Amino acid sequence: MNNNLASTQSKVLIVGYGNDLRSDDGVGQEIAKVVARQNRVGVRSLWRHQLTPELAADIAETELVIFVDAYLASQMQDVQDVKICSVEPLDSGTPSSHSSDPRGVLLLARTVFGHCPPAWLIAVPGTNFELGESFSPTAQKGIKRALEQLDRLLETHRFTIAS
Predict the structure, then answer these.
(1) Model pTM above 0.85
(2) φ and ψ at 22, to 5 degrees?
(3) Given Cys at both, which of 17, 56, 65, 147 links 109, Cβ 3.0 to 4.6 Å?
(4) pLDDT tens digits for range 39-87
(5) Span 82-104, mean pLDDT?
(6) Nearest to 136 by CA among 30, 45, 48, 14
(7) Neighbours of 160 (CB within 10 A)
């Protein structure tokens, strides 16, 4: 898998995940790829089909991690927006070798590598999760909005992670 890396010394890690062969489910990967093409200083971008335990090492080396994924938006809602929330590692338990959600991977980073940075999840609305490689109008709007929110989040944290 070819993932563009801005730097191995990155302070921020963007992890976009989802199935890029299931239409809107691929928005996380798409956003991570857009960020990678921007070549932002101090920002590393990875895209994956799913979250795996191997990500814990990358997460433990950063000062901020931002996960990006899709969520199924109700087609009945008039307003569907990008959701942003902070993410904490699981409170307890043994890290799983099959971690597939942000909280489990964060717990693994803390347990195995001794560091868990602040983390955020950007969830992008989607309405079509059928087989395919194109995005619905809802997801297309969500991608644009998510990139704007990502810029704001990075700007907000720029001062707390400055050298």
Answers:
(1) yes
(2) -125, 55
(3) 56
(4) 999 999 999 999 999 999 999 999 999 999 999 997 656 557 899 999 9
(5) 80
(6) 30
(7) 9
Q: Mapping DSSP to helix (H, G, I), strand (E, B) and coil, where does residue 43 land?
A: strand
CB 27 within 8 A of CB 136: no
Q: Which two tokens stand for residue 25?
A: 């489910």
CB 138 within 8 A of CB 24: yes
In the prediction, which pLDDT does 7 show?
38
- DSSP class of residue 22? B
Residue 133: Cβ-neighbour burial (10 angstroms; 0-12, 13-18, 19+): exposed
pLDDT in tens, 139-157: 999 999 999 999 999 988 8
User: What six digits make up the tokens of 2?
Assistant: 């070819």
Whether the CB-CB separation of 15 and 43 falls below 8 Å is answered with no
| pLDDT at residue 9, as a whole number | 53
Mind listing the domains of the chain with CATH numbers?
A: 12-158 (3.40.50.1450)
Strand order in the sheet with 83-87: 43-48, 12-17, 64-72, 119-126, 83-87
The pair of three-digit structure tokens given for residue 77, joined into one six-digit string: 């809602």
